[in-house]
Amino acid sequence: MSRTKRLLLVFGTRPEAVKMCPLVGQIQSRPALECQVCVTGQHRQMLDQVLDAFGVTPDFDLDVMRPEQSLAQLTGAVLAGMERVLDAAAPDMVLVYGDTTTAFTAALAAFYRRLPVGHVEAGLRTYDMARPWPEEFNRRAITLISQYHFAPTDQARENLLGEGVPPERVYVTGNTAIDGLATTVREDYVNPLLDWAAGSRLVLVTAHRRENLGPPMEGMFRAIRRVTDAHPDVKILYPVHMNPAVRAPAREILGGHERIRLTEPLDVVDFHNIMARSYLILTDSGGIQEEAPSLGKPVLVMRQTTERPEGVRAGTLRVVGADEQTVAREFSRLLDDPAAYAAMARAVNPYGDGRASERIADILEKTE
Ligand code: UD1
Ligand code: UDP
């Protein structure tokens, strides 16, 4: 009788959890696969919100988040913690997601043990090491380490093949982000925040990228306030990331406005449902660029580049940078020009059909 394959799934931030939890469910349902979950706690509150929403209880928790922690301290803590977890879990394979410090460091710890690594959401690239920083390095380094590359799109596969990854190691599966949306968005959803926004155009904002911290982010926020002032029918909902370097300028520049609501990070069920009912989205997030196209919500991407060109080609995403004047101009244009808005507000699905986790689990069952 063949023994079960022991998989260790490692993640630590909100977006990894949103996209790994559907895979946890799939793997747990397969008798041939044994699922262990290790969270690093790179994010604490924002991670726990997602674990609660999906009902996932980790087997290991490194609990590494510390105030004002540098990337080097974070990397060291995860690497040391992973040694202990790999001893205890004795996995046959380690699965990591995307491009965070958690994902890179967990892959490195597995590499040091000569353990196979599976990379979910493999092959995203900007080919600019400074944007996003440090994520472009993280994901390229994970590619070097991994044996199994689960690419969300054909474009991601092409990127990997262009870097010399053997084609038989690359599997195009769709993105598990879309799997999550299928379970969270509900017709009968209600929320007092939606009552507050009733009768207005609701604009959802998020921001957190490290390369935007400081002057670019301040410029983005000033642009948002200025355009909101000029459009009395617009209300802004901004669940503020917990990074203190985001919170301070958000409060200072966007606080105290009757049509701008700053809240704590929203539970993922709330966020997805509110996104589905918003007019448009301004963000520098990666995951939101995947979710918004399938909901038909226009996104102004407040970054210089994106590793998600599929949504740009489909017309739902527009990359506008973080310059104050440009953000203000593009935001106003989308509010004032119904044709420009209609051209972007089309539901398209470049990131899969909601069955990515199922495909990945199928492949994991078959791999040696
Ligand atoms: C991290 C990832 C980034 C991902 C983002 C998603 C890295 C280098 N960056 O960036 O790729 O897009 O998460 O949000 O891996 N904090 C809390 N509570 C929380 C979460 C964060 O207090 O639940 C605060 C802490 O002070 C923490 C800081 O936010 O030190 C920054 O968190 P960190 O994970 O280091 O970086 P992010 O910018 O969130
Ligand atoms: N999200 C959430 N609550 C919020 C803001 C975002 O649940 O208040 C979700 C969002 O739907 C997406 C993920 O968090 O699934 C994106 O996380 P984030 O923007 O922090 O990271 P990135 O995707 O940029 O790495």
List the helices and strands and how they pair.
Blueprint: E1 5-11, H1 14-28, E2 33-39, H2 45-54, E3 60-61, H3 71-89, E4 93-97, H4 101-112, E5 117-120, H5 135-145, E6 148-151, H6 154-162, E7 170-172, H7 176-184, H8 192-197, E8 201-206, H9 215-230, E9 234-239, H10 244-254, E10 260-263, H11 268-276, E11 280-283, H12 287-295, E12 299-301, H13 309-314, E13 317-319, H14 324-336, H15 338-344, H16 356-366
Parallel strand pairs: 1-2, 1-4, 2-3, 4-5, 5-6, 6-7, 8-9, 8-11, 9-10, 11-12, 12-13
Describe the structure.
The protein is of the alpha/beta class. The protein has two domains: 5-175 and 352-366, 3-Layer(aba) Sandwich (Rossmann fold), CATH 3.40.50; 192-344, Rossmann fold (3-Layer(aba) Sandwich). Helices cover 47% and strands 16% of the residues. The protein is built from 16 helices and 13 strands. The protein has helices at 14-28, 45-54, 71-89, 101-112, 135-145, 154-162, 176-184, 192-197, 215-230, 244-254, 268-276, 287-295, 309-314, 324-336, 338-344, 356-366; strands spanning 5-11, 33-39, 60-61, 93-97, 117-120, 148-151, 170-172, 201-206, 234-239, 260-263, 280-283, 299-301, 317-319. Strands 3-2-1-4-5-6-7 form a seven-stranded parallel beta sheet, sandwiched between helices. Helix 1 (14-28) runs parallel beside helix 2 and helix 1 packs across helix 16 (356-366). The longest helix has 19 residues, at 71-89. The two termini are 15 Å apart. The relative contact order is 0.13. The mean pLDDT is 97. The structure holds uridine-diphosphate-N-acetylglucosamine (UD1) and uridine-5'-diphosphate (UDP). Uridine-diphosphate-N-acetylglucosamine binds at residues 13-15, 42-46, 65, 67, 69, 71, 74, 99-101, 134-135, 208, 210, 242-244, 286.
